[in-house]
Amino acid sequence: MTVFLFPLISPENSIKDDARIARAIGLCKKLVGHFCHSWKAKMALKKAQQKLNLPEHTLITECPTRWGSRQKMIERVLEQQRAISDVISADKKSRHLIPTWQDLEVLESVNQALHPLQDFTDALSGESYVSVSYVKPVLHLMKTSVLAEKEEDSDLTKSIKKKILEYLITKYENPATQELMDMACFMDPRFKVSYTSTDRVSDIKTRVMSEMEAVAQKERSSAEPEAQTDDPPSRPLKKAKKSLGSFFKAAPIPTSSFMHLSQAVEAELNSYLLSTAIDSEEDPLAWWKLHKMTFPQLSKLARKYLCIPASSSPSERLFSTSGNIVTCQRTCLKPWRVNMLVFLNKNLP
Fold first, then answer.
1. What is the pLDDT of residues 45-85, one digit of tens each?
2. Domain extents for the chain?
3. What are the distances in angstroms from CA 86 to CA 91, 241, 273?
4. Residue 294 in contact with residue 271, Cβ under 8 Å?
5. Helix, strand, or coil (residue 35)
6. C-alpha closest to that of 187 among 304, 294, 286
7. Which residue blocks in 235-327 are alpha helix, DSSP H?
8. Which of 19, 109, 245, 349 is the most exposed, fewest CB within 10 Å of its CB?
9. What is the distance between the alpha carbons of residues 130 and 184, in angstroms, rounded to a whole number?
């Protein structure tokens, strides 16, 4: 099962209609462009940073394909605002680029609203750990804490937070997406049903049980023909010597004789729900590897759902890797060789 959920937040879609924000961000881009294209301006900025005891950081350019680059650009401009003003005020041709106090207030409000989201976006864009089961808890945390209005927030900050929340609610209101997030969260031993609404818990349990039964029936049907088609050995095997423990080993009892399939599935599900939740910093895949014999059917569902990435970032990184390999000087590479090089690039330490 391969499903890609798109990136969690989209500040550009949430704030692009505000004229004040559009003007302030446009001014930021012009400032960064001015310093990027003039080595004299770069040297003057460095001297101003040393004079004002500011960190000697370069300005960050916004990149449409670089997630979060707009917020980082705004944050860096605010950090270096005094040095930027000193350098630009000395040049008559670029004095019009000096941010006004209104522009600075707008940029501070935007940065205050978007900065807390950067860490969540980076975490959900990872590819070496389980991420899809985090989507539901992160959305809950944003609604209740990160994007909740605070007394010290400006009116613009409150407006931005409200628009982002509305965007998130609209983006994830699809029933199929909600069901996928609930199933992934259920299969994560860190969360289970902690972030699932009470009225949906019974539906999730019913779906889990039906999928567990389907997996068990498929295994049984595939095992029966194999048992029937086993060829007898061509020659008698040497009789193995019995061990002391073999005298105490009871004959296996067929499952159908003591427990129906649905009862076995229900018992396994209830046992999983009663197990102690692990710490949020632990690896759920390591937990499932340790308990796959205790929960044989559930472990297969965990493998199905927990492999889904929370965002499209891993696939985009793969495309970028392919683009770095197939360059203008290497356009004659065969497809199988490109696949091999990409695999080696992503898997070698």
1. 999 999 999 999 999 998 877 778 889 999 999 999 999 99
2. 11-128, 313-347
3. 9, 91, 62
4. yes
5. helix
6. 304
7. 255-258, 261-274, 284-291, 296-305, 313-325
8. 349
9. 10
